[in-house]
Write a structure and sequence with these properties.
about 40% helix; globular; binds phosphoenolpyruvate; single chain; alpha/beta; 12 helices; TIM Barrel
Length: about 250
């Protein structure tokens, strides 16, 4: 089964509501002629409802940038998957490196969030990635394996088929330093192999694995040429309509 490419924009903690509406309008225009690929944007929570209104009845998908695992409750500062769905999100980023490294989210917490997203009908984008120290110590692949295995703990094959993985080497996020196509391909093939061992090869071959880390108009085409790179999770370059337009139009 061919994997449908997915280009995802992570707006992080940027943009006022009017700015987000303007950028979403530009993204909708960019996507008018792209039937062979999916495009997702993850605005900050405050702009979700307004952006959902802009993309209504268009192919552009909306995601939250994180989600708790319960429907509601005493979880100050969190947002529930049901609340995300209510405002029009169909996807959610889980385990972004900024959540892991700035806010201390463990693989166990990431797994809880991921299972909550699946339970309440959101497609999770599970982010994994090694730090520079991990890579220099030769530990990149074991770290990735642990993040994938623990992130997907207690997720059965049927649910796993709905998950998107994003490989985001921490040393490449927001640094301007991109993994080479070969480095990314090696990690993606490794992750797919882990998925094949956890589940089965057929399922592993169907799961989309995005690359994230300083994706730009200049490097998107070569990254997308790699056989196991099925799309991109884009931070900085997703905040400018011209650069995101070029990225979604990868060749
Ligand atoms: C990200 O936010 O997931 C990301 C990869 O950011 P950037 O593209 O800015 O490196």
């Amino acid at each position: 089964m061919a994997r449908r490419p997915l280009i995802a924009g992570n707006w992080k903690m940027h943009l006022t509501v009017p700015e987000a509406e303007r950028l979403a309008t530009a993204v909708v225009a960019s996507c008018a002629d792209l039937p062979d690929r999916e495009v997702m944007i993850a605005p900050p929570f405050t702009a979700l409802a307004a952006v959902a209104e802009v993309v209504r009845n268009t192919p552009v998908l909306i995601a939250g940038q994180n989600a708790a695992w319960e429907k509601q409750g005493a979880f100050t500062g969190e947002i529930s998957p049901v609340m995300l769905r209510e405002v029009g999100a169909s996807m959610v980023i889980i385990g972004h490196s900024e959540r892991r490294h700035i806010f201390g989210e463990s693989n166990q917490m990431v797994n809880r969030r991921l299972r909550g997203a699946l339970q309440f009908g959101l497609i999770p984008v599970l982010c994994v990635g090694e730090t520079l120290a991990d890579r220099e110590e030769g530990k990149a692949m074991p770290i990735l394996e642990q993040q994938v295995r623990e992130g997907l703990a207690e997720v059965d094959a049927e649910a796993a088929a709905r998950v998107v993985i994003a490989y985001e080497p921490v040393w490449a996020i927001g640094t301007g330093r991109t993994a080479t196509g070969a480095q990314a391909q090696e990690a993606h093939a490794f992750i797919r192999n882990v998925l094949a061992r956890v589940y089965e090869k057929k399922l592993a071959d169907e799961i989309r694995i995005l690359y994230g880390g300083s994706v730009k108009p200049e490097n998107i085409d070569s990254l997308m040429a790699e056989p196991d790179i099925d799309g991109a999770l884009v931070g900085g370059a997703a905040l400018q309509s011209e650069s995101f337009d070029r990225i979604v139009h990868f060749l």
